[in-house]
Fold these 4 entries.
Entry 1:
Amino acid sequence: QQSMEGTDAARSTEIERLTSEVDHLRSERAHLISEHDIAVASLQSEHAKHMEEAEHRCHSIREKAISKLKEDRTRHAEEMENLTQEVGSLQTRVASLEDEKLHLQQSMEGTDAARSTEIERLTSEVDHLRSERAH
Protein backbone atom coordinates (compact mmCIF):
# COMPACT_ATOMS: atom_id res chain seq x y z
CA GLN A 1 0.00 0.00 0.00
CA GLN A 2 2.82 2.41 0.86
CA SER A 3 4.55 1.46 -2.35
CA MET A 4 1.41 2.25 -4.33
CA GLU A 5 0.94 5.52 -2.45
CA GLY A 6 4.54 6.44 -3.32
CA THR A 7 3.96 5.54 -6.93
CA ASP A 8 0.72 7.55 -6.99
CA ALA A 9 2.53 10.51 -5.43
CA ALA A 10 5.35 10.17 -7.98
CA ARG A 11 2.80 9.95 -10.76
CA SER A 12 0.96 13.01 -9.46
CA THR A 13 4.23 14.91 -9.25
CA GLU A 14 5.11 13.84 -12.81
CA ILE A 15 1.62 14.81 -14.04
CA GLU A 16 1.95 18.21 -12.36
CA ARG A 17 5.42 18.67 -13.88
CA LEU A 18 4.18 17.68 -17.35
CA THR A 19 1.07 19.84 -16.99
CA SER A 20 3.26 22.77 -15.96
CA GLU A 21 5.57 22.12 -18.93
CA VAL A 22 2.59 21.91 -21.34
CA ASP A 23 1.22 25.16 -19.92
CA HIS A 24 4.65 26.75 -20.32
CA LEU A 25 4.91 25.49 -23.94
CA ARG A 26 1.38 26.74 -24.69
CA SER A 27 2.30 30.14 -23.28
CA GLU A 28 5.53 30.17 -25.32
CA ARG A 29 3.57 29.12 -28.44
CA ALA A 30 1.02 31.92 -27.86
CA HIS A 31 3.88 34.38 -27.40
CA LEU A 32 5.56 33.21 -30.66
CA ILE A 33 2.25 33.41 -32.55
CA SER A 34 1.77 36.94 -31.22
CA GLU A 35 5.33 37.91 -32.27
CA HIS A 36 4.73 36.34 -35.69
CA ASP A 37 1.45 38.26 -36.13
CA ILE A 38 3.17 41.51 -35.11
CA ALA A 39 6.05 40.85 -37.56
CA VAL A 40 3.60 40.02 -40.39
CA ALA A 41 1.59 43.18 -39.69
CA SER A 42 4.78 45.25 -39.62
CA LEU A 43 5.99 43.74 -42.91
CA GLN A 44 2.58 44.32 -44.51
CA SER A 45 2.61 47.93 -43.31
CA GLU A 46 6.15 48.44 -44.61
CA HIS A 47 5.25 46.80 -47.92
CA ALA A 48 2.18 49.06 -48.28
CA LYS A 49 4.34 52.11 -47.52
CA HIS A 50 6.95 51.06 -50.13
CA MET A 51 4.23 50.40 -52.69
CA GLU A 52 2.72 53.83 -52.04
CA GLU A 53 6.13 55.48 -52.40
CA ALA A 54 6.83 53.54 -55.61
CA GLU A 55 3.40 54.50 -56.97
CA HIS A 56 4.08 58.15 -56.10
CA ARG A 57 7.50 58.03 -57.83
CA CYS A 58 5.97 56.40 -60.92
CA HIS A 59 3.25 59.05 -61.02
CA SER A 60 5.84 61.82 -60.63
CA ILE A 61 8.05 60.36 -63.37
CA ARG A 62 5.02 59.98 -65.66
CA GLU A 63 3.93 63.58 -65.04
CA LYS A 64 7.46 64.86 -65.76
CA ALA A 65 7.60 62.81 -68.97
CA ILE A 66 4.20 64.13 -70.10
CA SER A 67 5.28 67.69 -69.30
CA LYS A 68 8.53 67.22 -71.25
CA LEU A 69 6.65 65.78 -74.22
CA LYS A 70 4.25 68.73 -74.20
CA GLU A 71 7.18 71.18 -74.04
CA ASP A 72 8.92 69.35 -76.90
CA ARG A 73 5.70 69.32 -78.96
CA THR A 74 5.23 73.07 -78.40
CA ARG A 75 8.87 73.81 -79.23
CA HIS A 76 8.70 71.66 -82.39
CA ALA A 77 5.49 73.38 -83.47
CA GLU A 78 7.16 76.79 -82.98
CA GLU A 79 10.24 75.63 -84.91
CA MET A 80 8.03 74.35 -87.74
CA GLU A 81 6.15 77.67 -87.83
CA ASN A 82 9.46 79.57 -87.96
CA LEU A 83 10.77 77.30 -90.71
CA THR A 84 7.54 77.66 -92.67
CA GLN A 85 7.80 81.45 -92.43
CA GLU A 86 11.47 81.31 -93.42
CA VAL A 87 10.66 79.13 -96.44
CA GLY A 88 7.90 81.57 -97.41
CA SER A 89 10.33 84.50 -97.13
CA LEU A 90 12.92 82.64 -99.20
CA GLN A 91 10.34 81.78 -101.86
CA THR A 92 9.31 85.44 -102.01
CA ARG A 93 12.97 86.49 -102.28
CA VAL A 94 13.61 83.92 -105.06
CA ALA A 95 10.57 85.17 -106.99
CA SER A 96 11.78 88.77 -106.54
CA LEU A 97 15.28 87.86 -107.77
CA GLU A 98 13.83 86.00 -110.76
CA ASP A 99 11.75 89.08 -111.62
CA GLU A 100 14.85 91.27 -111.28
CA LYS A 101 16.84 88.88 -113.48
CA LEU A 102 14.13 88.94 -116.16
CA HIS A 103 13.98 92.75 -116.02
CA LEU A 104 17.78 92.97 -116.37
CA GLN A 105 17.72 90.53 -119.29
CA GLN A 106 15.01 92.58 -121.02
CA SER A 107 16.88 95.77 -120.24
CA MET A 108 20.11 94.33 -121.68
CA GLU A 109 18.28 93.13 -124.78
CA GLY A 110 16.84 96.61 -125.23
CA THR A 111 20.27 98.15 -124.69
CA ASP A 112 21.85 95.69 -127.17
CA ALA A 113 19.17 96.51 -129.73
CA ALA A 114 19.68 100.26 -129.20
CA ARG A 115 23.48 99.84 -129.56
CA SER A 116 23.06 97.84 -132.73
CA THR A 117 20.76 100.50 -134.17
CA GLU A 118 23.23 103.24 -133.17
CA ILE A 119 26.16 101.29 -134.65
CA GLU A 120 24.23 100.81 -137.89
CA ARG A 121 23.33 104.51 -137.99
CA LEU A 122 26.94 105.58 -137.35
CA THR A 123 28.26 103.08 -139.87
CA SER A 124 25.80 104.39 -142.42
CA GLU A 125 26.83 107.97 -141.63
CA VAL A 126 30.54 107.11 -141.89
CA ASP A 127 29.89 105.37 -145.22
CA HIS A 128 27.94 108.41 -146.40
CA LEU A 129 30.76 110.78 -145.33
CA ARG A 130 33.38 108.60 -147.03
CA SER A 131 31.28 108.58 -150.13
CA GLU A 132 31.01 112.40 -150.07
CA ARG A 133 34.72 112.79 -149.45
CA ALA A 134 35.49 110.48 -152.30
CA HIS A 135 33.53 112.79 -154.61
Entry 2:
Amino acid sequence: MGVLDELSSDSDADSDDKAPHEKGGGSSNKDKDPEALAGEEGGPAKKGKKITMEDLQRQGYQAGPSILHLKAPEETGDCNWAWSSGMDAKEKEAAERQANTFAVTSGVEQSAEHAIKASILANKLRDDMRAEREQRKEEKNLTYSQKEKRKREDGKAKGGSYVEEEKRLLRDHGVFSGFD
Protein backbone atom coordinates (compact mmCIF):
# COMPACT_ATOMS: atom_id res chain seq x y z
CA MET A 1 0.00 0.00 0.00
CA GLY A 2 3.03 2.29 0.44
CA VAL A 3 3.34 2.83 -3.29
CA LEU A 4 -0.29 3.86 -3.62
CA ASP A 5 -0.06 6.12 -0.58
CA GLU A 6 2.91 7.91 -2.06
CA LEU A 7 1.07 8.36 -5.35
CA SER A 8 -1.99 9.76 -3.64
CA SER A 9 0.21 12.02 -1.51
CA ASP A 10 1.77 13.30 -4.76
CA SER A 11 -1.64 14.41 -5.93
CA ASP A 12 -2.17 16.20 -2.60
CA ALA A 13 1.17 17.90 -3.01
CA ASP A 14 0.14 19.11 -6.45
CA SER A 15 -2.89 20.82 -4.98
CA ASP A 16 -0.78 22.38 -2.19
CA ASP A 17 1.60 23.88 -4.74
CA LYS A 18 -1.16 26.12 -6.07
CA ALA A 19 -1.18 29.73 -5.07
CA PRO A 20 -3.67 30.82 -2.40
CA HIS A 21 -5.74 32.75 -4.90
CA GLU A 22 -6.06 29.55 -7.04
CA LYS A 23 -7.19 27.52 -4.09
CA GLY A 24 -10.03 29.78 -3.43
CA GLY A 25 -8.93 31.43 -0.21
CA GLY A 26 -12.47 31.93 1.10
CA SER A 27 -14.37 29.55 3.30
CA SER A 28 -17.47 29.28 1.19
CA ASN A 29 -18.32 25.91 -0.33
CA LYS A 30 -18.90 27.50 -3.71
CA ASP A 31 -15.25 28.44 -4.07
CA LYS A 32 -13.91 24.95 -3.22
CA ASP A 33 -13.58 22.26 -5.87
CA PRO A 34 -16.14 19.41 -5.73
CA GLU A 35 -13.52 16.75 -4.82
CA ALA A 36 -12.50 18.65 -1.71
CA LEU A 37 -16.13 19.06 -0.70
CA ALA A 38 -16.77 15.32 -1.03
CA GLY A 39 -13.93 14.55 1.40
CA GLU A 40 -15.08 17.14 3.97
CA GLU A 41 -18.73 16.22 3.95
CA GLY A 42 -18.11 12.52 4.66
CA GLY A 43 -19.08 11.43 1.18
CA PRO A 44 -17.01 9.11 -0.97
CA ALA A 45 -13.27 9.61 -0.78
CA LYS A 46 -11.77 11.80 -3.43
CA LYS A 47 -10.34 10.07 -6.46
CA GLY A 48 -6.57 10.04 -6.75
CA LYS A 49 -4.42 10.61 -9.77
CA LYS A 50 -4.66 7.90 -12.40
CA ILE A 51 -1.76 5.42 -11.97
CA THR A 52 0.32 4.82 -15.08
CA MET A 53 2.87 2.17 -15.89
CA GLU A 54 5.67 4.73 -15.63
CA ASP A 55 4.58 5.59 -12.05
CA LEU A 56 4.68 1.92 -11.08
CA GLN A 57 8.10 1.40 -12.64
CA ARG A 58 9.46 4.44 -10.79
CA GLN A 59 8.31 2.81 -7.54
CA GLY A 60 10.16 -0.45 -8.38
CA TYR A 61 7.48 -2.52 -10.11
CA GLN A 62 8.89 -4.97 -12.63
CA ALA A 63 6.61 -6.63 -15.13
CA GLY A 64 6.69 -10.39 -15.73
CA PRO A 65 7.54 -12.04 -19.03
CA SER A 66 5.84 -10.50 -21.98
CA ILE A 67 4.32 -12.27 -24.94
CA LEU A 68 5.89 -9.62 -27.12
CA HIS A 69 9.27 -11.38 -26.80
CA LEU A 70 8.04 -14.84 -27.86
CA LYS A 71 9.14 -16.29 -31.18
CA ALA A 72 6.53 -16.76 -33.84
CA PRO A 73 5.52 -20.41 -34.38
CA GLU A 74 7.38 -22.08 -37.20
CA GLU A 75 5.50 -23.58 -40.11
CA THR A 76 6.44 -27.23 -40.51
CA GLY A 77 5.82 -28.36 -44.06
CA ASP A 78 2.43 -28.59 -45.67
CA CYS A 79 -0.44 -28.54 -43.25
CA ASN A 80 -3.40 -30.70 -44.17
CA TRP A 81 -6.46 -29.60 -42.26
CA ALA A 82 -8.79 -32.18 -43.81
CA TRP A 83 -10.37 -34.91 -41.69
CA SER A 84 -8.26 -38.04 -41.37
CA SER A 85 -9.50 -41.62 -41.63
CA GLY A 86 -7.30 -42.61 -38.64
CA MET A 87 -5.40 -45.28 -40.57
CA ASP A 88 -2.02 -43.71 -39.77
CA ALA A 89 -2.70 -43.93 -36.04
CA LYS A 90 -3.97 -47.51 -36.38
CA GLU A 91 -0.84 -48.56 -38.27
CA LYS A 92 1.37 -46.91 -35.65
CA GLU A 93 -0.61 -48.66 -32.87
CA ALA A 94 -0.24 -52.02 -34.59
CA ALA A 95 3.52 -51.53 -34.94
CA GLU A 96 3.83 -50.61 -31.25
CA ARG A 97 1.73 -53.62 -30.24
CA GLN A 98 3.90 -55.93 -32.33
CA ALA A 99 7.09 -54.48 -30.81
CA ASN A 100 5.69 -54.94 -27.30
CA THR A 101 4.68 -58.53 -28.04
CA PHE A 102 8.17 -59.31 -29.33
CA ALA A 103 9.80 -57.70 -26.28
CA VAL A 104 7.62 -59.69 -23.90
CA THR A 105 7.98 -63.06 -25.61
CA SER A 106 11.67 -62.87 -26.56
CA GLY A 107 12.93 -64.03 -23.17
CA VAL A 108 10.07 -66.36 -22.29
CA GLU A 109 11.77 -69.52 -23.58
CA GLN A 110 14.94 -68.85 -21.62
CA SER A 111 13.06 -68.03 -18.45
CA ALA A 112 10.91 -71.16 -18.85
CA GLU A 113 14.02 -73.37 -19.20
CA HIS A 114 15.55 -71.72 -16.15
CA ALA A 115 12.35 -72.26 -14.14
CA ILE A 116 12.20 -75.94 -15.16
CA LYS A 117 15.83 -76.52 -14.13
CA ALA A 118 15.22 -74.76 -10.81
CA SER A 119 12.14 -76.89 -10.19
CA ILE A 120 14.03 -80.14 -10.94
CA LEU A 121 16.86 -79.13 -8.60
CA ALA A 122 14.40 -78.20 -5.83
CA ASN A 123 12.63 -81.58 -6.20
CA LYS A 124 15.96 -83.44 -6.04
CA LEU A 125 17.04 -81.59 -2.91
CA ARG A 126 13.68 -82.24 -1.26
CA ASP A 127 13.91 -85.98 -2.07
CA ASP A 128 17.47 -86.17 -0.71
CA MET A 129 16.44 -84.46 2.51
CA ARG A 130 13.44 -86.77 2.86
CA ALA A 131 15.65 -89.87 2.37
CA GLU A 132 18.16 -88.57 4.92
CA ARG A 133 15.37 -87.95 7.46
CA GLU A 134 13.98 -91.46 6.93
CA GLN A 135 17.46 -92.99 7.36
CA ARG A 136 17.98 -91.10 10.66
CA LYS A 137 14.54 -92.22 11.81
CA GLU A 138 15.34 -95.86 11.01
CA GLU A 139 18.67 -95.60 12.82
CA LYS A 140 16.90 -94.30 15.93
CA ASN A 141 14.55 -97.30 15.93
CA LEU A 142 17.41 -99.87 15.78
CA THR A 143 18.38 -101.80 18.90
CA TYR A 144 21.88 -101.62 20.34
CA SER A 145 22.92 -104.96 18.86
CA GLN A 146 21.65 -103.94 15.40
CA LYS A 147 23.64 -100.72 15.64
CA GLU A 148 26.80 -102.64 16.64
CA LYS A 149 26.28 -105.12 13.79
CA ARG A 150 26.03 -102.27 11.31
CA LYS A 151 29.20 -100.72 12.73
CA ARG A 152 31.04 -104.02 12.41
CA GLU A 153 29.94 -104.30 8.80
CA ASP A 154 31.13 -100.77 8.14
CA GLY A 155 34.40 -101.40 9.98
CA LYS A 156 33.73 -98.97 12.81
CA ALA A 157 33.27 -101.42 15.64
CA LYS A 158 34.25 -100.20 19.07
CA GLY A 159 33.21 -102.57 21.76
CA GLY A 160 34.52 -106.13 20.85
CA SER A 161 37.73 -107.75 21.97
CA TYR A 162 41.07 -107.16 20.37
CA VAL A 163 41.52 -110.82 19.42
CA GLU A 164 38.19 -110.99 17.61
CA GLU A 165 38.98 -107.87 15.67
CA GLU A 166 42.38 -109.18 14.60
CA LYS A 167 40.87 -112.50 13.50
CA ARG A 168 38.23 -110.67 11.49
CA LEU A 169 40.81 -108.48 9.79
CA LEU A 170 42.95 -111.54 8.92
CA ARG A 171 39.90 -113.33 7.52
CA ASP A 172 39.13 -110.32 5.37
CA HIS A 173 42.65 -110.52 3.90
CA GLY A 174 42.34 -114.26 3.17
CA VAL A 175 44.25 -115.73 6.14
CA PHE A 176 42.38 -118.60 7.77
CA SER A 177 44.10 -119.92 10.92
CA GLY A 178 41.48 -122.46 11.86
CA PHE A 179 41.72 -121.33 15.45
CA ASP A 180 38.23 -120.16 15.91
Entry 3:
Amino acid sequence: YLEFVCPVVAKPPADRPTQRGVTPQGPEYRLMCLEGERIETPLYWPKCTTPRVCPAASGPDIRAEKTGLSNSYIDVYEYEHVNLTCSDSVKEIPGTILFSVHCGFNPDPEAEEGLWVEPK
Protein backbone atom coordinates (compact mmCIF):
# COMPACT_ATOMS: atom_id res chain seq x y z
CA TYR A 1 0.00 0.00 0.00
CA LEU A 2 0.90 3.62 -0.51
CA GLU A 3 -0.34 5.75 2.37
CA PHE A 4 -1.75 9.20 1.79
CA VAL A 5 -1.17 11.08 5.06
CA CYS A 6 -2.54 14.53 5.80
CA PRO A 7 -0.05 17.29 6.65
CA VAL A 8 0.33 18.80 10.10
CA VAL A 9 -2.64 21.09 10.77
CA ALA A 10 -2.16 24.86 10.49
CA LYS A 11 -2.95 25.61 14.15
CA PRO A 12 -2.32 22.44 16.18
CA PRO A 13 -3.19 22.31 19.88
CA ALA A 14 -0.30 23.41 22.12
CA ASP A 15 0.03 19.90 23.56
CA ARG A 16 0.12 18.32 20.05
CA PRO A 17 2.43 20.41 17.86
CA THR A 18 2.68 17.69 15.20
CA GLN A 19 -1.03 16.85 14.96
CA ARG A 20 -1.99 15.83 11.44
CA GLY A 21 -5.28 16.34 9.67
CA VAL A 22 -7.81 13.55 9.13
CA THR A 23 -10.04 12.46 6.26
CA PRO A 24 -13.53 10.92 6.30
CA GLN A 25 -11.78 7.57 5.71
CA GLY A 26 -9.44 7.90 8.67
CA PRO A 27 -6.14 9.43 9.70
CA GLU A 28 -4.55 7.96 6.57
CA TYR A 29 -5.86 6.88 3.19
CA ARG A 30 -4.35 3.75 1.62
CA LEU A 31 -3.93 3.26 -2.10
CA MET A 32 -3.25 -0.22 -3.44
CA CYS A 33 -0.09 -0.76 -5.45
CA LEU A 34 -0.84 -2.26 -8.87
CA GLU A 35 1.25 -4.12 -11.39
CA GLY A 36 3.69 -2.07 -13.43
CA GLU A 37 4.62 0.35 -10.63
CA ARG A 38 1.21 1.99 -10.66
CA ILE A 39 -1.15 2.84 -7.82
CA GLU A 40 -4.90 2.62 -7.85
CA THR A 41 -6.60 5.87 -8.79
CA PRO A 42 -9.24 6.92 -6.28
CA LEU A 43 -12.60 8.22 -7.51
CA TYR A 44 -11.82 11.35 -5.50
CA TRP A 45 -8.99 12.46 -3.25
CA PRO A 46 -10.04 12.80 0.36
CA LYS A 47 -10.02 16.26 1.88
CA CYS A 48 -7.85 16.73 4.94
CA THR A 49 -9.50 18.57 7.82
CA THR A 50 -8.39 19.56 11.30
CA PRO A 51 -9.46 16.82 13.72
CA ARG A 52 -12.26 17.91 16.03
CA VAL A 53 -12.30 17.12 19.71
CA CYS A 54 -14.67 14.74 21.46
CA PRO A 55 -14.97 16.50 24.83
CA ALA A 56 -14.69 14.41 27.97
CA ALA A 57 -17.86 16.04 29.31
CA SER A 58 -19.96 14.56 26.50
CA GLY A 59 -18.58 11.00 26.58
CA PRO A 60 -21.17 8.18 26.48
CA ASP A 61 -22.70 7.33 29.83
CA ILE A 62 -21.15 4.07 30.97
CA ARG A 63 -23.16 3.11 34.00
CA ALA A 64 -20.52 2.20 36.54
CA GLU A 65 -23.03 0.42 38.78
CA LYS A 66 -23.92 -2.00 35.94
CA THR A 67 -20.66 -2.27 34.00
CA GLY A 68 -18.04 -1.85 36.72
CA LEU A 69 -16.21 0.59 34.44
CA SER A 70 -15.11 4.04 35.51
CA ASN A 71 -16.70 6.95 33.69
CA SER A 72 -13.35 8.77 33.44
CA TYR A 73 -13.07 10.35 30.01
CA ILE A 74 -10.45 12.73 28.68
CA ASP A 75 -10.67 14.98 25.63
CA VAL A 76 -9.57 13.11 22.49
CA TYR A 77 -9.69 13.86 18.78
CA GLU A 78 -11.42 12.13 15.86
CA TYR A 79 -10.13 8.57 15.31
CA GLU A 80 -8.65 8.38 18.81
CA HIS A 81 -10.00 6.43 21.77
CA VAL A 82 -10.18 6.47 25.55
CA ASN A 83 -9.47 3.36 27.60
CA LEU A 84 -11.81 2.87 30.54
CA THR A 85 -10.79 0.87 33.57
CA CYS A 86 -12.67 -0.97 36.27
CA SER A 87 -14.14 1.33 38.90
CA ASP A 88 -13.47 -1.24 41.62
CA SER A 89 -10.15 -3.09 41.78
CA VAL A 90 -11.92 -6.03 43.44
CA LYS A 91 -13.98 -6.55 40.24
CA GLU A 92 -10.94 -6.31 37.98
CA ILE A 93 -9.90 -9.52 36.23
CA PRO A 94 -6.12 -9.77 35.74
CA GLY A 95 -4.99 -9.85 32.13
CA THR A 96 -8.24 -8.56 30.67
CA ILE A 97 -8.33 -6.37 27.59
CA LEU A 98 -8.97 -2.66 28.09
CA PHE A 99 -12.41 -1.35 27.18
CA SER A 100 -12.06 1.43 24.59
CA VAL A 101 -14.51 4.16 23.60
CA HIS A 102 -13.87 5.68 20.17
CA CYS A 103 -14.13 9.29 18.98
CA GLY A 104 -15.50 9.02 15.46
CA PHE A 105 -15.36 11.31 12.46
CA ASN A 106 -18.23 13.80 12.25
CA PRO A 107 -19.42 14.06 8.62
CA ASP A 108 -21.09 17.44 9.29
CA PRO A 109 -18.58 20.04 8.07
CA GLU A 110 -20.20 22.70 10.29
CA ALA A 111 -19.89 20.66 13.49
CA GLU A 112 -17.36 21.78 16.06
CA GLU A 113 -16.92 18.37 17.73
CA GLY A 114 -16.23 14.78 16.78
CA LEU A 115 -18.79 12.07 17.54
CA TRP A 116 -18.40 9.69 20.45
CA VAL A 117 -19.23 6.17 19.23
CA GLU A 118 -21.61 4.47 21.65
CA PRO A 119 -20.17 1.12 22.73
CA LYS A 120 -22.32 -1.86 21.78
Entry 4:
Amino acid sequence: RGHVLGHKIGYPHFEDAPDNAWGDASKHFINTELAFGIFFCIEVVLKVVGLGKQFVNDLWNWFDTALVISWITENLGAKVPLDTTLLRLVRLARLLRMVRIARKIQGLDSLV
Protein backbone atom coordinates (compact mmCIF):
# COMPACT_ATOMS: atom_id res chain seq x y z
CA ARG A 1 0.00 0.00 0.00
CA GLY A 2 2.81 2.40 0.82
CA HIS A 3 4.47 1.79 -2.53
CA VAL A 4 1.22 2.49 -4.37
CA LEU A 5 0.77 5.79 -2.53
CA GLY A 6 4.40 6.80 -3.07
CA HIS A 7 4.04 6.10 -6.78
CA LYS A 8 0.79 8.09 -7.02
CA ILE A 9 2.19 11.21 -5.38
CA GLY A 10 5.49 11.02 -7.26
CA TYR A 11 7.68 10.45 -4.21
CA PRO A 12 11.43 10.11 -5.08
CA HIS A 13 12.61 6.53 -5.81
CA PHE A 14 9.05 5.31 -6.37
CA GLU A 15 9.07 5.72 -10.15
CA ASP A 16 8.41 2.03 -10.85
CA ALA A 17 4.83 0.87 -11.01
CA PRO A 18 3.82 -0.96 -7.81
CA ASP A 19 3.17 -4.16 -9.76
CA ASN A 20 6.82 -4.21 -10.90
CA ALA A 21 8.32 -3.19 -7.56
CA TRP A 22 9.08 -6.71 -6.42
CA GLY A 23 10.16 -8.02 -9.79
CA ASP A 24 10.78 -11.77 -9.58
CA ALA A 25 10.14 -11.96 -5.83
CA SER A 26 7.07 -14.17 -6.28
CA LYS A 27 9.22 -16.78 -8.06
CA HIS A 28 11.70 -16.69 -5.18
CA PHE A 29 8.92 -17.10 -2.62
CA ILE A 30 7.57 -20.12 -4.51
CA ASN A 31 11.04 -21.67 -4.74
CA THR A 32 11.71 -21.02 -1.04
CA GLU A 33 8.40 -22.62 -0.05
CA LEU A 34 9.23 -25.62 -2.23
CA ALA A 35 12.69 -25.97 -0.65
CA PHE A 36 11.33 -25.79 2.90
CA GLY A 37 8.55 -28.23 2.03
CA ILE A 38 11.08 -30.73 0.72
CA PHE A 39 13.28 -30.26 3.81
CA PHE A 40 10.29 -30.86 6.11
CA CYS A 41 9.35 -33.99 4.13
CA ILE A 42 12.90 -35.30 4.49
CA GLU A 43 12.80 -34.49 8.21
CA VAL A 44 9.61 -36.50 8.74
CA VAL A 45 10.97 -39.46 6.76
CA LEU A 46 14.23 -39.42 8.74
CA LYS A 47 12.28 -39.26 12.01
CA VAL A 48 10.14 -42.24 10.99
CA VAL A 49 13.24 -44.23 10.02
CA GLY A 50 15.23 -43.18 13.09
CA LEU A 51 12.55 -43.44 15.75
CA GLY A 52 10.66 -46.40 14.34
CA LYS A 53 7.60 -47.25 16.40
CA GLN A 54 8.38 -44.50 18.91
CA PHE A 55 7.59 -41.92 16.22
CA VAL A 56 3.86 -42.16 16.96
CA ASN A 57 4.33 -41.45 20.68
CA ASP A 58 5.17 -37.76 20.22
CA LEU A 59 2.33 -35.34 19.44
CA TRP A 60 4.71 -33.00 17.59
CA ASN A 61 5.52 -35.79 15.15
CA TRP A 62 1.81 -36.12 14.35
CA PHE A 63 1.63 -32.36 13.88
CA ASP A 64 4.68 -32.34 11.58
CA THR A 65 3.24 -35.22 9.58
CA ALA A 66 -0.11 -33.44 9.17
CA LEU A 67 1.70 -30.30 8.05
CA VAL A 68 3.77 -32.20 5.48
CA ILE A 69 0.73 -34.09 4.18
CA SER A 70 -1.22 -30.83 3.82
CA TRP A 71 1.73 -29.26 1.98
CA ILE A 72 1.96 -32.24 -0.39
CA THR A 73 -1.78 -32.24 -1.14
CA GLU A 74 -1.72 -28.48 -1.64
CA ASN A 75 1.11 -28.81 -4.17
CA LEU A 76 -0.68 -31.61 -5.98
CA GLY A 77 -3.55 -29.20 -6.59
CA ALA A 78 -6.03 -30.50 -4.06
CA LYS A 79 -7.74 -28.06 -1.74
CA VAL A 80 -6.94 -28.49 1.94
CA PRO A 81 -10.06 -27.82 4.08
CA LEU A 82 -8.15 -25.74 6.63
CA ASP A 83 -5.82 -22.77 6.61
CA THR A 84 -2.29 -24.16 6.53
CA THR A 85 -0.80 -20.74 7.29
CA LEU A 86 -1.75 -21.13 10.94
CA LEU A 87 -0.12 -24.55 11.05
CA ARG A 88 3.05 -23.09 9.55
CA LEU A 89 3.09 -20.31 12.15
CA VAL A 90 2.81 -22.88 14.94
CA ARG A 91 5.70 -24.81 13.42
CA LEU A 92 7.74 -21.59 13.24
CA ALA A 93 6.94 -20.87 16.89
CA ARG A 94 8.11 -24.38 17.77
CA LEU A 95 11.37 -23.81 15.89
CA LEU A 96 11.95 -20.48 17.63
CA ARG A 97 11.30 -22.16 20.99
CA MET A 98 14.00 -24.73 20.20
CA VAL A 99 16.44 -21.94 19.28
CA ARG A 100 15.72 -20.21 22.60
CA ILE A 101 16.33 -23.44 24.50
CA ALA A 102 19.61 -23.96 22.62
CA ARG A 103 20.76 -20.48 23.62
CA LYS A 104 19.94 -21.18 27.27
CA ILE A 105 21.95 -24.39 27.11
CA GLN A 106 24.90 -22.49 25.62
CA GLY A 107 24.66 -20.01 28.49
CA LEU A 108 24.90 -22.87 30.97
CA ASP A 109 28.16 -24.08 29.39
CA SER A 110 30.05 -21.23 31.06
CA LEU A 111 29.03 -22.57 34.47
CA VAL A 112 30.77 -25.89 33.89
